[in-house]
Amino acid sequence: MEDTYGFIGFGLIGGSIAKAIKKAKPDCSIIAYQPDHNTIDSHIENSLLLAKKECIIQIITTSLEAFSCCDIIFLCAPVLSNIEYLEKLTTIVKPDCIITDVGSVKGNICNVASSLSVCKNFIGGHPMTGSEKTGYENAKEYLFENAFYILTPNIDTKPEFLTRLKQFVQSINAIPVILDAKEHDNIVAAISHVPHIIASSLVSMIKDNDDKNHTMLSLAAGGFKDITRIASSSPIMWQNICLTNKESIQTFLTLYKDTIDSFLQLLVPEKEKELLHFFENAKEYRDSIPASVNGILSKTYELYLDIIDESGAIALVASLLASHKISIKNIGIIHNREFQDGVLRIEFYDIIAMEQAIVLFQQHNYTIYER
């Protein structure tokens, strides 16, 4: 008999997990929870209906009792809500059910789990991938391919449950990594939470200091957009993250502030060598990040292509790629001052496809920009 999976929360991550499950196990059953109609967002309700129409969800339920038959339950709501649902599931789940979450903070929910009767059933989870786009409509079955998927068992977790969840993670083509909950929270504060706060702060700095004609906004080009991309993520999610991982975030924000203060001391003529050394060290370390594995900020495989300003130019590029069986993930025209002429941005699923496209475009005398 195929497994039954339960989902509480069905946005980008929950929807992507469900799609990945259906790809790996087409005959499995997926149950999704729909909150009370008096409190549910119409967007959530529409997402669940769409997922059922697409045959990703088999059952939409308004009662948590329906999760009593589940083999694995995924808590995919905001961090604080996940804790509330975990407590409610305590008397519902069957003995061999695994409960896991997908939140970016593990300490709070793992501490709560350790005090509940389901402590042996719960394993914290954090798929380290995603997008600034939210909602089920942006969910992708391949979102977890080659992405790290952190698991944070507690001292009471049954070893066979951890083995089962590791095997599940591998079945959706992700890479399981076992960490202590506190260690996890420190790591993600440094490489995810603080960078998000910095990105949002940069956007706020521009907003607060722009002129009445919004000149800064209109001139913001690729570099600013790239470094602030994550500031477009869900505000509610990031509010929850900051409230539940405050201690680790404070630690690394303080370290970042110290780095900025040190950098300010280099902005004098006699410190030109130290200034160069600062950027050289940063470049060397940044370039050492592996390109083959997705992190919090997933590796993108993209190039920028000069196109002729005439009708059919984009169709010609797409046809050229299709004729050589090169799939693209995304395509669009860049509208900013970074490039003098019209430039087409093309994103690929992997580096092999991108390299094949580069050779192909060079053979047809296109001008290519790589970043």
UniProtKB/TrEMBL annotation:
GO terms for molecular function: NAD+ binding; prephenate dehydrogenase (NAD+) activity; prephenate dehydrogenase (NADP+) activity. Keywords: Amino-acid biosynthesis, Aromatic amino acid biosynthesis, NAD, Oxidoreductase, Tyrosine biosynthesis. Its EC number is 1.3.1.12. It is an enzyme of class 1 (oxidoreductase). The keyword Oxidoreductase applies. It holds the Pfam family PDH_C. It catalyses: prephenate + NAD(+) = 3-(4-hydroxyphenyl)pyruvate + CO2 + NADH. Gene3D superfamilies: 6-phosphogluconate dehydrogenase C-terminal like domain, NAD(P)-binding Rossmann-like Domain. Pathway: Amino-acid biosynthesis; L-tyrosine biosynthesis; (4-hydroxyphenyl)pyruvate from prephenate (NAD(+) route): step 1/1. The keyword RNA-binding does not apply. Residues 3-297 form the Prephenate/arogenate dehydrogenase domain. InterPro entries: 6-PGluconate_DH-like_C_sf, ACT-like_dom_sf, NAD(P)-bd_dom_sf, PDH_C, PDH_N, Preph/Arog_dehydrog, Prephen_DH. One of its GO terms (biological process) is tyrosine biosynthetic process. SUPFAM superfamilies: 6-phosphogluconate dehydrogenase C-terminal domain-like, ACT-like, NAD(P)-binding Rossmann-fold domains. Belongs to the prephenate/arogenate dehydrogenase family. PANTHER family: PREPHENATE DEHYDROGENASE, PREPHENATE DEHYDROGENASE [NADP(+)]. This is Prephenate dehydrogenase. The lineage of its organism: Bacteria, Bacillati, Bacillota, Clostridia, Lachnospirales.
